[in-house]
Request: fold
Amino acid sequence: MKKISVVIPAHNEEGNISLIHQRIKEVFAKLEDYHFEIIFVNDGSRDSTQQILEKLARENEEIKFIEFSRNFGHQPAVKAGIDSSSANAVISMDADLQHPPELIPKMIEQWEKGFDIVFTIRTYPKHISTFKRKTSELFYHLLSGISDVNLVKGGGSDFRLMDASVVDVIRNMNEADIFLRGLSTWIGFKQTGVEFTAGDRASGESSYNLKKMMRFAFTGITAFSVKPLYLAAYLGFIFSAFAVLVYGIYVVHSFIAHTEISGWASLIMTVVFFGGVQLIILGIIGIYLGKMFKQVKDRPNYIIRSNNF
Ligand code: UDP
Ligand code: MG
Reply:
């Protein structure tokens, strides 16, 4: 019998743990050829998530848990689950039931057809705010545009099935700022997608706000592309060419008209403008430098406080 690990990161999800366990159990009850385990990764929850997990694990042998020493973030949590799996395939999904467990049979079906990665394509239900919808669309557009990874529209959630061969590759990667959505595209292999409609959170609140989403976007872009670094060079060329042109015009003008061109305001504006441009470029270089700093220190992506393996 083939074994499937379902990896679920959980940050303050006390209300959802039993629910999602129940739903997954029902799904696998109908899949006779597979047995499953659920690896919950408690990512520094401040509610009773850990107690619930320990109780559930005592009563059900398919429940595994990993407790982090603090909050490390969603991506490291998924990575931890992937790292600890020894199954034939891993399915990663959110704890809040926005990723319907009922899609699992479809994913397994594609896997059995020979696909190594089965990603999911999310379509939003009508009532999800246009803001969230648009920002997430814009992000994937931007990321696909300026980097070498092509993300499918709506294909950006961490609800995906990975074959053991893919899991092995990901386990051996130790990037400082791990970004699985890009990584799983970059990695290659045979991939296909299945569609689902994202539901609402079953209980609790989303841990992502605008600030976190912005940081996530920056992480994603700078993890997969050095194109922003070229910006400095391009802008440099454009402005230099412009300056030479304008300078030429002024020289000719002063010969013909015999007047000096005064312009204190335009001078100051130019200085301020270029000061701004230089700071932006410096900032971009700084982001990459920071990444290298993190990578060089080679600290682990997460620290485990306890588990029941
Ligand atoms: N999560 C986590 N660590 C965090 C934030 C979130 O492990 O620091 C988990 C969370 O428990 C959930 C998943 O990541 O299972 C997705 O989080 P959330 O639902 O808050 O994000 P959204 O669906 O709003 O993008
Ligand atoms: Mg959610």
Observations:
- Strands lie at 2-10, 34-42, 63-68, 89-92, 117-123, 160-163, 191-197, 304-307.
- The pocket of uridine-5'-diphosphate (ligand 1) is lined by residues 9-11, 13, 43, 71, 73-74, 77, 94-96, 98, 206-208 (CB under 6 Å).
